[in-house]
Amino acid sequence: MVLIAGIDEAGRGPCIGPMAISGVCVEETKIPELVKLGVKDSKLLTVEKRAELAREIRKIAKEYKTILIEPEEIDKVLMHPSTNLNKLEALKTAEIINYLGPDEVVVDCPQVNTKAYKFEIRNFLDRHINPAMLAENKADENFVIVAAASILAKVARDEAVEKIKKNLGVDFGSGYASDPKTIIFLEENWEDEKYGPIFRKSWDSFKKQMLAKSQTKLIEW
């Protein structure tokens, strides 16, 4: 029985909320079932369809795992010049592979140098974990097992964002800097300690607010 896993992320780019990385592991014979369900890149699906498929994917999967990386952890990693978001993603990807224990794994690669990224992941794997590994750009478009992981990651990220909104009683939109609602919320609340934990302070969109304030102070002075 060959176990095949796919790994993908959601929420890598937003300035608000966590990043989610998910892994799905199935028996090789179950791959056609994912295809039959209509599993594909989560970005091509509606919210409702993603939720529906996520439930079915969990039923088919031998194992699955999602890790949420909160803004504070992302910011701490990016404080050090020797590391970056790709290395953090490689570390969390390895954690998922260690948990799933697949024979083969396909990983959606966030960088151009796929060979280097694969090497980075292997550095973090447990000694007894040694799957055949493929790291590929846009793997969620080309491998149904990675598309399945992309769906779980996107659902997890969306659920986390909705939970934040409910707990704080606010609506900041999608959390992406391309969303006008998100930017307005950031401009009005970036200094409020209540919202501090939800912002990625290492992001340019957040730093822009800090810079604008410092420049205003200089002008006033």
Overview features:
Nucleotidyltransferase, domain 5, disordered C terminus, Arc Repressor Mutant, subunit A, 2 domains, 9 helices, alpha/beta, 5-stranded mixed β-sheet, 221 residues
- CATH architecture assignment name of the largest domain: 2-Layer Sandwich
User: How many structural domains in the coordinates?
Assistant: 2
What form results from the Cα inertia axes?
globular
Secondary structure tally, helices: 9
Task: Please report the first level of CATH classification, the CATH class of the largest domain.
Answer: Alpha Beta
Mean pLDDT over the residues: 94
Distance between the termini: 71 Å
Helix content: 40-55%
Total strands: 5
Backbone structural class = alpha/beta
> Going by CATH, what is the homologous superfamily of the largest domain?
Ribonuclease H-like superfamily/Ribonuclease H
Low-confidence stretches: 217-221
**Sheet with the most strands: spatial strand order:** 3-2-1-4-5
How would you sum up the major sheet? 5 strands, mixed
Stated plainly, the CATH topology of the largest domain is called Nucleotidyltransferase, domain 5
Task: Give the DSSP E fraction (strand runs of 2 or more residues).
Answer: 15-25%
Please provide the ordered H/E string of secondary-structure elements: EEHHEHHEHEHHHH
Q: What radius of gyration results from the CA coordinates?
A: 19 Å
